[in-house]
Each structure stands twice: as structure tokens, then as C-alpha cells.
Amino acid sequence: MNKLIPIVTVHSGFHHLKMEEISKIMGVSRATMYKYFSSKEELASGIVEILVNYIEELEEPSMTDGDTSYGRAFQQIFEQSLSSVGKMSEVFLTELETVYPELFDKLNQSFAKRNQKVAEFYAIGKEKKIFNPVNEKFLVLQDTLLLREITNMKYLVQNQTSMEQVLLDYYQLKKFQLFRSDKLSIVDDSIIIPIIRKIAEKNIRNMTYSNNPINAHY
Hints:
single chain, 12 helices, elongated
């Protein structure tokens, strides 16, 4: 499964794959594969289960060290949002919604639970006068919609920019949008910049992996 998941969720989707191709990617015989997955639906269900577990195991923001902890918690949530977007392509999500809507709903429900926790964090920050009085649901929705839009190759080419620059710009946008001006000093950018750079490099590798990642994997 570890070999198959990035190809299905990041690169090519799963609907067009034949079971024989899937067994080759997994590095097992068809007979062995069928012991675990008798159909594409079972395979898709297994992949969704792994993704759901990943989302549910994301560390919740902790505010145990006063105001400063809000700065790090914000960066932690930002990193999680970037990583989550990088794990699931639009192709994969569209196929899942079209072919297996129940699995798509299951994945969406896990995102909804995570987003609720993030919204609660934003709401607490507003009460503590650390965050600006911005609708926390809009802040969450912004990550859901805008991040996927600005991290695709078409956007980068059209705007003649790099993945790293886009993510850095988006980080600055979120920071100034969220924190009150007198609280900006509690955010240490030196912590998140190398993380953003690493995620940007990984995203570009995924996007340029190959025009045919399946054959490249063979």
C-alpha cells in the first residue's frame, strides 16, 4: 500500500488503473493482492481509511505557554494544512466523489472534525485578544479552497512564480490577517520558513514526477 498510495492520491487517481497494474505497483502477485483487496472499491476503502487515520491523528494546537504558544500553534496548523493539500490531488478527490461517494463523505467528515477544532482555536484566540475579530469559519474555508487553487502548476505558470514563493506569501497573508498588530511579535517566522521550503520542494517533485508516474514507478 505504501507504494500505491502516493500514485493514487497525488498523481494519477485510481479509476483507470487495472488490478494487474495495481499489483505491479504494490510489488506483489495478483493472487496475493486479491487476498487483501478483491475489488477497486475495497482498495479505495483501504486508502481512505489510511487518510482518515492521518487526519484524525494530527496534533491539536496547544496553548500552554501563554501568548507565544498561539504563534507556534498557528504555524502548526498552517503546516498541517499544506501537508494535507499535498497528500490529495483534485483528480483523486473528484474520482472518489464520483465513483465512491460514501467514501468521499467519510473522508470529508474527518476533515470537518479537524476543521471544527481549528475553528475553535481561532475563536479562543479572538477571545484572548490575540487574533483579529475575523470569522473563524471563513479562515478555515480559506485554507480549504484557496490553498488547492494556488498550489497547482497552472497557477504557478500563469503568475510566473514558484511554489515556495506562493506558500511564503500565503503564510504572510494568513499571519497578518489573523494576528492583531500588537501580537505579531509572538510569531517566529524562522521556525516555519524551512518547513515551507521543504513542503514546496516535495510538492514540486510530486507535480513533475512524470507524465506517466505509473510506468515511471515500474
